[in-house]
Design goal:
This protein is mainly α and 92 residues long. The chain has five helices and no strands.
Length: 92
């Protein structure tokens, strides 16, 4: 009986720890998705990063605004080859 109680205590403590781990993992995933436009702006378009990051918080409540920020974060910068092809000045 003592061994069974020990197993139950070990299992319950492991379960409680797993609950916190899953909560932390879910929170990290949630914030990564919420701030995805800011992360993409960091990778693709450093010029407008501050504006996109500022607008990212309220835009997360609207799928349309959040999607528009993703488009802005990815397409905000003209590459040199694309600019030469379109005979435009590249965005610095």
């Amino acid at each position: 009986m003592d061994m069974l109680n020990q197993f139950i205590e070990t299992f319950s403590s492991a379960w409680q720890e797993a609950e916190w781990v899953s909560l932390v993992l879910f929170a990290l995933f949630f914030f990564a998705v919420w701030f995805l436009p800011s992360l993409l702006a960091l990778l693709f378009n450093r010029r407008h990063l501050g504006k996109i990051a500022l607008l990212n918080v309220p835009a997360g409540f609207s799928v349309i605004a959040w999607g528009a920020l993703i488009v802005w974060a990815v397409t905000g910068k003209l590459g040199d080859k694309l600019a030469a092809k379109a005979r435009l000045k590249p965005v610095a």
